[in-house]
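re: that chain from earlier
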Amino acid sequence: MFALIQVGLPGPVRGEAGKCVPTGEDAEGPFYKPGAPEVLSTGSGLTVSGDVISYPDCHPLPGARIEWWHADRSGRYVDSLRGMQKTGAKGSYAFTTLPPGVYPGRPPHIHFKVSVPGHKPLTTQLYLRGGEKAIRFDIVVEAEQRY
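^ sequence. v structure.
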């Protein structure tokens, strides 16, 4: 059986027959630091929003913990561009930040780490084309199998 996996690209999280598609894992990278502050903003210029959704049930996940971090305009990772928040009652999140910077060999991107009880933790990245002011990034996490 072939399973579709969405890899860090904005867009639909629905595959065949309207079923949700798990978000693909991506590198955490060397710059992750635990304990990001709970904030709604780490700057201005880019709004990122979306839902955290359970796979395979495809229902929203309230209370999911989302951490994000990215490079500044000079390509350096700084503590002021790290944040965390929990999804609301409908599984939604939104934050504003500076547009991520570029460093050699990498397109602009934002790292995400998502954890929610009963689901596998997920580390992924959102890749940007550049120039976006707002972007939607739904994240689909896999439920842990129960035997």
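The two ends are 21 Å apart (CA to CA).
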